[in-house]
Design goal:
Radius of gyration: 17 Å
Shape: globular
Structural class: alpha/beta
CATH superfamily of the largest domain: Nucleotide-binding domain of ferredoxin-NADP reductase (FNR) module
Number of helices: 5
Strand order of the largest sheet: 4-3-6-1-2-5
């Protein structure tokens, strides 16, 4: 696994307790949307590893990671305090659940899965493909990018994870766009199981369902 020291280009608020960290792409680094990096952060005098998925459609010049902040956490508050010019140690890229311009795509995101889902939908549109995005959360991050995708003709569906019928709504939304052929699913394990089952029941082959569960 390659190791890099990167320079932070900026840190932005993109939602409630959610930031986007832009870093300058180091020489020799290249990754696809959906892949992730290992960020090494200092905690009590030691470096600890945390995994963050790339949330930009490419890594040309800079790339982005979207991070949900846990105020009681040992790493995310430190990340939120970073500023342009700071150094950040990372390793990667890692992960086989990634999009390589292979056609139309359905991206399904639960909570922090919105980063890679957005990146995949944006990359598909940039390469002339059709895309749809389903996003479930109790508060939505990256609203400007979601609006831009909708303006570009992407079918964007936002679902309230606190709704009484949330599982049915999520299953229906995912199953409605199996016509796109490939689905990428990012979220926590229960969310991913629900979406995978819905896609299978709707007739999508397992080899067209690409899932990255965050545990």
């Amino acid at each position: 696994m390659d190791e890099y020291e990167v320079v932070v280009a900026g840190v932005r608020d993109v939602g409630e307790e959610t930031i986007a960290i832009d870093v300058e792409t180091p020489a020799g680094f290249s990754a696809l949307p959906g892949q992730f990096v290992v960020v090494q952060a200092p905690v009590d005098g030691e470096l600890v590893d945390r995994y963050y998925t790339i949330s930009s459609p490419d890594t040309e010049g800079t790339f982005e990671m979207t991070v949900e902040i846990d105020p009681e956490g040992d790493v995310t508050p430190w990340l939120a305090d970073l500023a342009a010019g700071d150094a950040l140690a990372l390793k990667g890229p890692l992960g086989e659940t990634c999009y390589d311009d292979e056609g139309d795509v359905l991206a399904v995101a639960g909570g922090p899965g919105i980063g890679p889902a957005l990146a995949i939908a944006e990359r598909a549109v940039d390469h002339g493909h059709e895309a749809a995005l389903v996003y479930e959360d109790d508060g939505f991050a990256h609203r400007e990018r979601l609006d831009a995708l909708a303006d570009a003709g992407v079918a964007v569906e936002l679902l309230d994870e606190t709704a009484a019928d949330r599982e049915r709504a999520l299953s229906d939304a995912a199953a409605a766009r199996t016509d796109l052929g490939n689905a990428f699913v990012f979220g926590f394990s229960e969310f991913c199981r629900t979406v995978r089952d819905a896609l299978r029941d709707a007739g999508l082959d397992d080899d067209a369902i690409h899932v990255e569960s965050f545990g």
